[in-house]
Amino acid sequence: MPLILPERTQAVAADLRRLIGRAKVLDDFPTLTAYAVDASIYRVTPQAVVLVDSEDDIQRVVDYAVVRGVPITPRAAGTNLTGSAIGSGVILDVSRLNRVLELNREEKWVRVQPGLVLAELNQYLARYELLFGPDPSSGEMCKLGGMLANNSSGPHTLRYGSVKDNVFRLRIYLESGGWLEARPYPLADPACEQVCSSYPALREVLALVRRHSALIQAKRPSVSKNSCGYNLFGLVEGLEQGLFDLPKLFVGSEGTLGIISEATLRLVDRPKATLTALIHFRSLEEVGEAVPQLLGLSPSALEVMDANTLDLIGRARYGIPADAAATLLAEMDADGEATDLKETAERMAAICRRYRLAADLAVAFDRDQRDQLWKARKALYPTLYRFDAKKKPINFVDDVVVRADRIGELIRYLEEFFRGRRIPVAIFGHIGNGNAHIVPLLDVNDERDFAQMVESYHDIHRTVLGRFGGSICGEHGDGRVRAAYVRHMFGEELYELFVRVKRAFDPAGILNPGVKISDVPFTDHIDYVRLSKPCATCAKCNSVCPVYDVFQSEDMSSRGWFEIVTSKDYSYLNSRRVVEACLNCKSCRTVCPAGVDVAELILRRRAEHPNRAAGLIFKLHARPWLFEPLLKLAARTQWLWDRPGARAWLERLSRPFMRLIAERARIPREMVLPKLARRHLRERYPELVERACGGRGGVAYFHGCAANYFDDGVGDAVIAVLRRHGVEPALPPQRCSGTPIETYGHVNLVKEGARFNLRSFASYDTIITGCASCTLMLKDYPKLFAGEPEQQAAERLAGKVMHISEFVANSPKVPATRTASPRLRRLTYHSSCHLRAAGVTKEPRRILAALPGVEFVEMQDADRCAGGAGTYIVKDYDTSQKIFERKRRVIEQSGAEIVATSCPACMIQLTNGLRGRVQIKHVAQVLQEAYEAAGQADEGQGSGT
């Protein structure tokens, strides 16, 4: 059936809305722009996006696509590097199908939906000491649907195999037969005949494989892993065992044969202990010699990064010696007490010391230390985006496989190949099974570089197939980038079998056309514009985006927002709903290896259309002589208006004005509001305000708005802690740091306040903060004034700023501490987003863990946004509470009695969400209590003597 591509894309979207509902079908500019890309080098704009949340949705969409001849592309996280998650028809996003449906601990299997993130599955399984083994480097953001589609594997393939080795059964919707339970069927079982009768495509493929089993066996790649073509080899292997092993066919088929709605996965026991080692070799040849010996230790992972890669990502940044020709990352697991990892480490060291090493082995047993060793490897690809403004890492020969004993030879060939063409290249990968990832850095907009790319594509693939007898694809899938080369790899006869399999399951030709089986050149659909931008579209930012966590839609995600706000067709009017959805939490900036700050780009777009209603509030706030008396009046009458009946009227009466701020903005009647202070902080400490008059040097406290205006005890605690450390802080005149003002687009007001603060704090040696947002904003003043006369003053001020937790952690004076409670109390820490973005992560944890009488527990997802985000809690209360739901669950799972945090704004959200079930305290308050308890104990001992 020929594909029908309607001239008006709205026709497809309108039809689908009638079928499954308006809320699940999107076709506006932001959505189509966000879904036009995945993590590959391509761009293909779809006609519509469907956010399915049931099997019924999948069935209706596929049936409609068959009748209309509209292409359909299933998509999960869109982290694929080959372009298989983008398409010109309907994108069927399965991200909202993201539940664990069933777990069998005894038999070690789990039934899951395809939208579940791998990292979240393994977090869930960790409670039961279980694990799903395959672990691609994108595990923090990739989803199981994509892993199934590509037959992913990752660094630990040596121990756990690829996805195809870990699937018991799938539930798939077939265009030609409806829902199928794809499991291994014994050939002698009547159920096998029954399923073949019900699904003619299965009967046809079974007959095809039986008839051509000799050809399939002869063409089977002789390497350890392969995801190129359809896995007819697995079917032949199954036939030899008396099985029609259907999962082997569908895993790795990249959405071209059917749509997966469920998978039952094999689990393994989580290792009891693990060691990770980083080994720096001076000779690449010696790496090749060492690997077979290291494989004798049964490692779970062996990863290599060549000298080019180490140079590109920055040796100094990761502590890599200048003379290292290659770095090997090795990991060993212990399944029980019988395995002594320290003995294993000694054996490994003995093997490696036979060779010329650039440094001693770095061996880590602790989780945090092991994560540090993995850091460079896991962030490698997007980090390459920092290398050059024009030359970008281009994935087009990125996943070749050779025999493990020839990987050193392959790397040497590749280094010489690219050196001769003067092309920077990163070569890294899974050396233990011969899988190399090759990422040249090219400017595809340059004619010479483009020609080099095309030439390299053919030369390298031919060499891998001819000279090395390898595979062009180990774990990333064929997608668009290798589809045209599948024929060359397997030859005409086997390729024709692949075509017949595709036709059997997809007679309408609508399932992910252009992917896996195609003659279209790999250069079609390259996104030349995006490849000149700094974003790798790797989706690492999506893994921490609180809005994406709620909506599970690419147009409501960090990566999607980057595409939208940098598009040439962007306008505020066509993108307002998504531009206003960002919390400005800065989590994307914190995790992005390429250094992209999506929130900053959005703030610039908002600055083109400042919110007038919010501007009126900020202008009033900038006049303390008028604003503060009004606030005190509200404080004195809070007992009257902060009651259920009055709050209902307040919400109703304030609604017209709040809508001027945002469509969903309101002062929720159910929200626990912070208590307003009748006497502001500056009034409570007149001696510190006076100390600031004419004073020079010393320590100043930038208290910010919340500590000054709210009766939350945070400002008092910060001052008390400073005094315990022998510091009498000054309280200079100050204006809002600017974070909330910038959020609503009023850059001029931000700069006005910032200039005031620059003048007021210029003479001090140290500036202490207690608010995470104030900390980040003050440290970001140099960006605010980039290229302006105030830049140098801003840089000087930024260098003086310290959060109170930083100050305490580095203070030479260590006051006595004691618990105020006679029993051990469990405490956890919520890491405020802006404090993380300011680079302060370890200090609060360190000082809390050191307190007596406290059992400090690390909360899962401690670094995820709680959803308050300053004024976001009133800008979109409903979404903020949906974001908080995840935080509430992990706090309850931690069993903590106290949640400490670093920001008064986070305290508001935590207090509102937990409703007294757990105590909420600022880090400074926890310290203050410990100092005071010690002081009272000393006084008691003194009076007793």
- In terms of per-residue confidence, which ranges show pLDDT below 50 for 5 or more consecutive residues? 1-8
Q: Radius of gyration from the CA trace?
A: 30 Å
**What oligomeric state do these chains adopt?**
single chain
Helix-strand makeup class: alpha/beta
Q: What's the arrangement of secondary structure elements?
A:
Layout: H1 9-20, E1 25-26, H2 29-34, E2 48-51, H3 55-68, E3 72-75, E4 90-93, E5 100-104, E6 109-112, H4 118-126, E7 130-131, H5 144-150, H6 157-160, E8 167-174, E9 178-182, E10 184-186, H7 190-198, H8 200-211, H9 213-219, H10 232-240, E11 243-245, H11 246-250, E12 259-266, E13 268-269, E14 273-281, H12 284-295, E15 301-306, H13 307-313, H14 315-318, E16 326-334, H15 341-352, E17 362-364, H16 367-378, H17 380-383, E18 392-393, E19 400-401, H18 407-420, E20 425-430, E21 435-442, H19 447-466, H20 486-505, H21 546-551, H22 558-565, H23 572-579, H24 587-591, H25 598-607, H26 612-621, H27 624-636, H28 638-641, H29 644-661, H30 681-684, H31 686-691, E22 699-702, H32 704-709, H33 714-724, H34 739-743, H35 747-761, E23 766-769, H36 772-779, H37 781-784, H38 791-798, E24 801-803, H39 804-810, E25 825-830, H40 833-837, H41 842-849, E26 854-857, H42 872-875, H43 877-894, E27 898-901, H44 904-914, E28 919-922, H45 923-944
Parallel strand pairs: 2-4, 3-4, 22-23, 23-24, 25-26, 25-27, 27-28
Antiparallel strand pairs: 1-2, 5-6, 6-12, 7-13, 8-9, 8-12, 10-11, 14-16, 14-17, 15-16, 15-20, 18-21, 19-21, 20-21
Helix pairs in contact: 7-8, 8-20, 12-18, 22-25, 33-45, 39-41, 43-44
